[in-house]
Specification:
Elements (H helix, E strand, L loop, with lengths): L6 H4 L7 H11 L6 H24 L2 H13 L13 H19 L1
Helix pairs in contact: 2-3, 3-5
Length: 106
């Protein structure tokens, strides 16, 4: 699931939260008809875990401020202002929400 974001190769602090993510989501949405909801929630939770790790242990205050500002702007142009280590996470956020939007508008 999260390997498509490339976190493990691009973020030195990343630990793959597959089991943790799966268990949290399957408790909430266990019925078969909610498979799409489980997929989206798992992706968002994985990104949230990465952001939490970034804030807790990896990013400097200045880098985290840039990341927060990029989230507030919510545009592809903001990625150029981010440190290299934060770009995959920011791009994953934009990609997941774009995927949700496309699926909901289809």
């Amino acid at each position: 699931m999260v390997e498509r974001f490339g976190f493990s190769s691009k973020l030195p602090f990343f630990e793959d939260p597959v089991v943790e993510t799966y268990l949290r989501i399957v408790v909430v949405c266990f019925e078969p008809q909610y498979s799409y909801a489980r997929i989206i929630q798992a992706k968002l939770l994985a990104i949230t875990i990465v952001i939490d790790d970034m804030y807790d242990a990896y990013g400097t205050l200045a880098e985290l401020e840039l990341f927060r500002e990029a989230i507030e702007r919510w545009d592809n142009g903001s990625i150029d202002r981010l440190p290299e280590c934060m770009r995959p996470c920011y791009q994953a956020i934009l990609d997941v929400y774009k995927e949700i939007e496309e699926k909901e508008n289809a």
